[in-house]
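Appendix B. Chain record.
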Amino acid sequence: MMNKIIKVKMHAPAWLIVFAVAIIGAVSFSSAETKGRYVSDELTEEEAGNDDKGLIEKFNDQLGKLGKLLERAQDFWVDEPDNGAQGKGFGLDLDLNDPRMADLMQFYQAQLDKRRPSRNEKDHRSVFAEYKPVIKSYVQSTARIINKNDKQLSLATVVSHGGLLVTKASELPPKGILCELSDGRRAEAKILSTDSRWDIALIKVELLGLKPVDLEGSKQVELGTFLAASGLDEYPIAVGVASVTPRNLSANERGFLGIGMENTEQGVKVNQVQRGSGAAEAGVEVGDIILKIDGQPINSPSELAKSVSGRKPKDQIKILLKRGDDEKDLTAILGSRGQSVPQFRGPDPSAQFGGPLSENRKDFPNALQHDLTLRPNECGGPLIDLDGKLVGVNIARGGRVKSYAIPVADLKDVISKLNDQRNVSTDLGNLEKTLGSLDEQSDLIEGSLKDVRKRREQLLRELEEFEVKLRGLKKEREETLRAIEKAKSSSRE
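Structure tokens predicted for this chain:
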């Protein structure tokens, strides 16, 4: 459908006219489609009309109108003969995959990203209204992290009355961040410590009356649990369900067999074997049918992937496979997925049509996967279930319908470690200040001692001079006394 080709008569550079007309049509469609504000904005209006057509259908309608418009415009264009073209005049194939149409496609993709949901979708305002009581108590525990240009960087979750919050570390610059609360108060935020494995930052603000979330009353989340993400508004910023139980997303800590698979009538068929992988070393070949792993039947690629990824690198597994008419037992040693998987990696389709993704969205030690549609700058805030219990803190947008949250149990450990780092840093800072003060005092005392020593040497010289003078005076006095005695004796005679 998207590869539809329109043939019209025009000059070679006339594709520019096509593009301009398409943009005009697109703008008119866009204004009708996006009238009012979107669900994540602070203010909203109701949609204009209840158009049931999808975005792609409307796109094709616009192209149809465009074709008719061009047919009417042919009479105003001067055709140039082209013997190689079918029919009269110059034929131009207008292919939607043509690089010249990239800007037009990008424009329509932007409309898709911004499109206001219909009433039948879970992200519609009417659905959000049902979750208002659930998140009501968490609005005061949610903050917005912004830069000095008032651009939102992330959300944050209050974790102590003393002004401590946690947020997504990789979205923050080293300095120059502000924290805004739901009541409108703002204060400069200071990054105290970070954990790169979890992508969590512990920040500090000098604000009173903060309401921390309850990290003790959490419970384990089951698949299908309805969830909501709170923001600074009375409505949630997104709602959805838990789609995958918490698991390790760190590629280096998951086992990797090294095969590509497909479902066939015969069973799970190997269609790729990575060179140097555990599968290759064990003797697995393309075309083999995987029957069992460690005695457990394998009925789908997902079952095999789940069986292997739940193990650690260097673990051994027993593989029962079928090759032709024979069954074989093999033993494979799992490798590290982080080292092996790049060969099979390809572009993420969700990154193109699902909106922006978080730059750091993988390798978390443990994460709950859910389908809430979050923007990267909406990570860092609380995730709540329908009972009003804190489930975790949103940490990344990973795909079109895939976001991740750090479970509360893990969050508590991370906060404890970050606090320890903060305390160690504080103690070290205090000790360094004390040492600097002692050094300053030592320098002063040494300077004073140097002055005293100089004065002492001078005084010793003066003392020696006075002692010499004193001895001279005493000697002169004794001579004078002898002279007096001599004079008295002469006068008596």
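Further analysis of this model is presented in Appendix C.
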